[in-house]
Amino acid sequence: MLYLLLLFLLITHISAENLPIIYGHFKNGTRVEICKNNTLDCSDVAESYTVGEGSKEFLIWTPFGEPGKAGEHVGNILARALRQLVINTRDKKTNMDTIKGRIVVKSWSDMSYVPICQEDDPNSECPTIMILGTTQFAYRSKQGEIKILDGYFDKYLNDTHEPITDSFLKQVYYDYNIDGHFMAVPLVLDIRLLYFNRTTFDTLNLEYPPPYGNWGTYSEPYYLTWNWEMFVSYIRKIRQHFPNDLAFSFTGQYDEEMKLFHMIIKNYYIETIDENKTCGFLNNKEKVLQIIETIIKPIFSQLGDDWYPDNEETRAFLNNNDYIAPEDLPKM
Ligand SMILES: *[C@@H]1O[C@H](CO)[C@@H](O)[C@H](O)[C@H]1NC(C)=O
Ligand SMILES: *[C@@H]1O[C@H](CO)[C@@H](O)[C@H](O)[C@H]1NC(C)=O
Ligand SMILES: *[C@@H]1O[C@H](CO)[C@@H](O)[C@H](O)[C@H]1NC(C)=O
Ligand SMILES: *[C@@H]1O[C@H](CO)[C@@H](O)[C@H](O)[C@H]1NC(C)=O
Ligand SMILES: *[C@@H]1O[C@H](CO)[C@@H](O)[C@H](O)[C@H]1NC(C)=O
């Protein structure tokens, strides 16, 4: 059974006295003190971290441990948050630490698949909390490895007189509510950013995207006019004026295009899997095709042929300006 507790990420100004020491550990056995008196702006990294001298272990598994990924930096931030938890859980009488925090940076597949809390295996770790992505969570949940949090939420309410669920974003409120039980604390940490060039926008007299530009009115929400159609029309205007430059570009790896694609389709209220557990794309084929033709192709074709150097099919598709009618599509 995985003991999921709440970790309050409070990186506040902590006084330098009595600060729990954060140790960074390396696989070669070296241990170094990191972020000495520093509570802010400390970016020392290690392969795992320990904080506090108590007897109860509070183990955090944190992701992005693949070489070149930012896992150790996330670990550093967590270590500093854990410092606060060590302070908050000190014995009131003796002021001694009661917990010993340990943070281990794990790879994507370890986070998802490594067996945890195996009683018959002394080497099996039993994390107190894990920072899981949505798909990893689904797998762990299916394995029955995630503890129901209702009791902790009730305790939080009793202690603070505030429901912790009030702090959840409404968009993800029910994402981890399974069969009427809360199974996780949603934490949004993987987001996409849109950068735009103010000089270009000023030159062409384009309104900045929200929240900077003046979109929407009191009676009309901004997204009625700042939408993907407008985005495409802006790309066209920029391209016309700067024919030799990319009007739109994109940074991503792996499946990022697919994520952007999904986000766009979702903005038209088409779900990937709908309430009847069938494919929302297929059920809304005409609309999806229209979005592909009017939004996806104009945006993605801006990336240029270099984007898909080994994929002639994709290039041909993106550069094909002919509208493909739904009835002309290959039959499923
Ligand atoms: C162990 O690894 C760390 C990080 O790569 C390095 O800074 C340290 O010098 C190494 N220690 C020894 C004894 O090799
Ligand atoms: C850290 O704080 C201690 C006690 O306040 C002080 O003696 C020491 O010089 C500080 N170390 C650094 C690196 O600032
Ligand atoms: C609720 O809070 C009160 C006062 O803070 C405390 O005495 C009581 O034990 C708490 N009950 C539970 C179930 O945690
Ligand atoms: C922004 O666009 C202007 C032309 O509109 C260009 O000269 C400048 O290099 C661009 N800045 C960046 C950071 O790309
Ligand atoms: C799900 O099925 C019900 C019953 O057939 C239907 O009324 C409803 O429109 C379907 N929902 C979607 C999103 O297709």
From TrEMBL:
<feature type="signal peptide">
    <location>
        <begin position="1"/>
        <end position="16"/>
    </location>
</feature>
<keyword id="KW-0732">Signal</keyword>
<protein>
    <submittedName>
        <fullName>Uncharacterized protein</fullName>
    </submittedName>
</protein>
